[in-house]
């Protein structure tokens, strides 16, 4: 590295072990932590806090804190604290198996918030007082500015709003990340807000550093642990078919003159389907693409490397170990073409709408009329959360929702008569894609949407069941605008809960 | 009036009777008509078109057109065309009883669209070709510019996008409306969009005129009929109690330092509850208020008159006959404090978010977890549509949803275990108010929301039933994040359809 990570002499005097920093977090505190999709979360203090909580519990005085983050983190944060029963309330997004189990058992409270809304909700004071900010950075400059690490998330807001700040300086992160970030300090509470001056995905409108008065920093902890970095898995057949339908559609839209030849800025979630789409874009006819999205995953990095993607804006990396090594070795080479921003800007409705983002997000289930459930299994069990899908889909130029047509080896149909929870309403859903095909719902009244979705997206095993429901609803529904048999609209979910399968 | 309404000599030569103009609309055409909440809709040509359709139908060659508007219109437009079975497809909003009946009978197609989205959907080409624009104005200047009338709606987009334009010049509208409107011509399709330079509700960022090349104008029709103008009704007791809870909350938020003393820009729907809220604001402690909303109804006008409201921005008037007379007699006096804009700007997510609007909208039903149904009765019958409620609520500083706790003389509870259709998801709902009380859902996980909604908003007749459902769901739901008994979640609606009442 050849560079001192904590270059500020004043802040070097605040370096302490993780246990000492964890002791600064009082019982009942609201703690704003860094971390977004397994990148840039604090790696030592949460573990020390979990130990402290476990010891307190063993001694008969359990305590809990509320944990606010950017999005999902990792076992060292969510997993350890949930395991210790140390989390009172969690927001705005998680994907941790231990947390999920505790939430669904009613043992942990969870608020599932649009990722773009968190910063303003906290600033407005609607979520209560923020006691502590716990933020990972990749370094501290001589004059005390903080160089962000592999995610930005809500760090600016946590540092601004918290009473005291704990900084983890992670030497695993590349020193060459310095200059890659863009922290916009121009937001305000109304009536003092002004336009956000961002008109292209790569625009830089802020400073590369997080700013914090040194006297507010209560402790600095040094770490050297890697980000979570799940291994990359090759797209499966269903994902490749979903990607194929989507790419054919995009080519068609370009041919019709409804999209520019280099498309519009891409937003893509993570996972198998997203990887397949990004792979497909790399192999396809498109050039000079841009991305305005939440996370830069392996597929995006590949497109940047090949030059298919000219620039990518996000709030975090979400990389496999191999790709993380590549970034750590070559951050300087990517610095001109990658911008990491606060999530209030990466996901801001104003900017998403202005840029005309093509939003591509996975789902749990869709119904005949195009309503989307992104969060709940069988209406009551939270899976992960809405994340940024609403931020992007609601204001997208075209909103795509992607899913295999079945789950659990065919026991669950992703297309149901009525979804058991709604995260994206019929008003916000443009295109639905499964491995079976693509339904373009733009400009279609509800009954026509149902026709498209049954014919093009449903799995053949469930198509006759959907058709049967639809035909009987057309005949018997009291309203024919959105025909439903209200007594059996959720019958497929009921059947699954009773028998383990949605099949009749 | 003392002023020639069609001052352009070139366009005076295009004046024709309504029947001749209606003959320019071909069968199967997509027609973009003016009109928003019963204001500024064309008053002669739709009636002539309906006659032509009826005659054709009687002669054995029926035809239909698709009707796109700003929002709801009046019997002379929606009523007459629906009665003649002349509408193939209707968007983006309607509240006409004849249309509603035909839509729910499956005889007319209807797409229920966010009002801010319509202009871009058309411009993007996602809804097909716009054949004819049919737009009411209050006058035409000597050089051919069009002076809008009592609504702006989507008129700019219709005129820009249509192949030919028919103009109705209505001499009932005040000539002094000239200068009151602000038509922003700075929108673009991505990737060419730039920030909308509007930072305060009263900012003027465009021109007072609609611009149309004269050669595109195929016909000019002169009319003199008043807008629909439903009479004003005094708020009932339930509405006054809803308003009381809301005003108490606002005072509390100011006292807590979470709202400025003059609040933030108000958005309010129409109807009895909205009138009660506006009356209450007039009687309350607030001064120097502003409005950034869709419509200016009697209550807003009253607040402007008394000086409580310093400026109001909207896209249309929606006035009683008495208030319409007042505007017609005194438009010049209001011109500095009222701005009517295109609905893509009045409802624009970018601007709504920036200004920090306080969004207040009525609903059909809410559920225990704060999901809102604004559009469908018993899951299948459309009532009116989502209108602008999503535009405002989704990006509001605080989103309020207001409803009496029961409907149909108590046979329907507005608070149900699970809503039968979702227009606003749990992620977007801040505050729910009924005459029983107010539930502040900000920062609450789902089970806590249920507790608040049952205790504070439900009608006492239904509270024990809700409590029973909630307790059994807490005990038996497979997921305890959003506890539901999926087999009976829609049971209240089923019971109503079977028995005419949601009571057990």
TrEMBL record, chains A, B:
Native species: Pseudonocardia halophobica
Keyword Hydrolase belongs to the record: yes
Name of the protein in its database record: Acetyl-CoA hydrolase/transferase
Record GO biological process: acetate metabolic process; acetyl-CoA metabolic process
Alphabetic keyword roster: Hydrolase
Residues annotated as domain Acetyl-CoA hydrolase/transferase N-terminal: 9-171
Residues that coordinate or bind CoA: 269-273, 364, 384, 388, 408
UniProt-listed Pfam families: AcetylCoA_hyd_C (PF13336), AcetylCoA_hydro (PF02550)
GO molecular-function term, one example from the UniProt record: acetyl-CoA hydrolase activity
Family indicated by similarity: Belongs to the acetyl-CoA hydrolase/transferase family.
Annotated ranges, domain Acetyl-CoA hydrolase/transferase C-terminal: 335-469
Catalytic-site annotation from UniProt: 294
């Amino acid at each position: 590295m050849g560079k001192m990570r904590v270059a500020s002499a004043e802040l070097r005097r605040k370096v302490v072990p993780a246990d000492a920093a964890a002791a600064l977090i009082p019982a009942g505190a609201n703690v704003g932590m860094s971390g977004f999709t397994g990148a840039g979360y604090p790696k030592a203090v949460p573990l020390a806090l979990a130990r402290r909580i476990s010891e307190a519990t063993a001694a008969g005085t359990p305590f809990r804190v509320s944990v606010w983050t950017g999005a999902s983190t990792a076992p060292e944060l969510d997993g350890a604290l949930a395991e210790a029963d140390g989390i009172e309330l969690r927001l705005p997004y998680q994907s941790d198996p231990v947390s999920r189990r505790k939430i669904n058992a009613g043992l942990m409270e969870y608020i599932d918030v649009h990722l773009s809304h968190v910063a303003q909700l906290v600033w407005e004071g609607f979520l209560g007082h923020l006691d502590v900010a716990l933020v990972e950075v990749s370094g501290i400059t001589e004059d005390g500015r903080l160089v962000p690490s592999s995610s930005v998330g809500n760090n600016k807001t946590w540092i601004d709003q918290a009473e005291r700040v704990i900084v983890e300086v992670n030497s695993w992160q590349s020193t060459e990340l310095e200059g890659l970030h863009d922290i916009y300090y121009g937001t305000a509470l109304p009536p003092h807000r002004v336009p956000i001056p961002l008109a292209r995905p790569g625009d830089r409108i802020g400073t590369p550093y997080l700013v914090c008065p040194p006297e507010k920093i209560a402790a600095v902890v040094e770490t050297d642990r890697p980000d979570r970095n799940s291994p990359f898995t090759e797209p499966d057949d269903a994902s490749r078919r979903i990607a194929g339908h989507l790419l054919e559609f995009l080519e068609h839209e370009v041919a019709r003159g409804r999209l520019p030849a280099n498309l519009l800025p891409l937003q893509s979630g993570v996972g198998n389907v997203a990887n397949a789409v990004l792979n497909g874009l790399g192999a396809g006819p498109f050039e000079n693409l841009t991305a305005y999205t939440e996370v830069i995953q392996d597929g995006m990095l590949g497109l940047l490397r090949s030059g298919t993607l000219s620039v990518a804006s996000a709030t975090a990396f979400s990389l496999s170990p191999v790709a993380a090594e590549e970034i750590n070795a070559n951050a300087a080479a990517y610095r001109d073409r990658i911008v990491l921003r606060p999530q209030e800007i990466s996901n801001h409705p104003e900017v998403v709408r202005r840029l005309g983002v093509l939003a591509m997000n996975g789902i749990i289930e869709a119904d005949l009329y195009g309503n989307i459930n992104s969060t709940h299994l069988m209406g009551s069990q939270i899976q992960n959360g809405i994340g940024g899908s609403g931020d992007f889909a609601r204001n997208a130029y075209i909103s795509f929702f992607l899913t295999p047509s079945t789950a659990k080896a065919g026991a669950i149909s992703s297309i149901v008569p009525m979804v058991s929870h709604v995260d994206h309403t019929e008003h916000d859903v443009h295109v639905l894609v499964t491995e079976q095909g693509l339904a373009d719902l733009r400009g279609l009244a509800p009954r026509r949407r149902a026709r498209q979705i049954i014919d093009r997206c449903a799995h053949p095993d469930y198509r006759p069941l959907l058709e049967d429901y639809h035909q009987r609803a057309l005949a018997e529904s009291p309203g024919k605008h959105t025909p439903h048999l209200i007594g059996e609209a959720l019958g497929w979910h009921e059947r699954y809960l009773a028998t383990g399968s949605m099949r009749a």
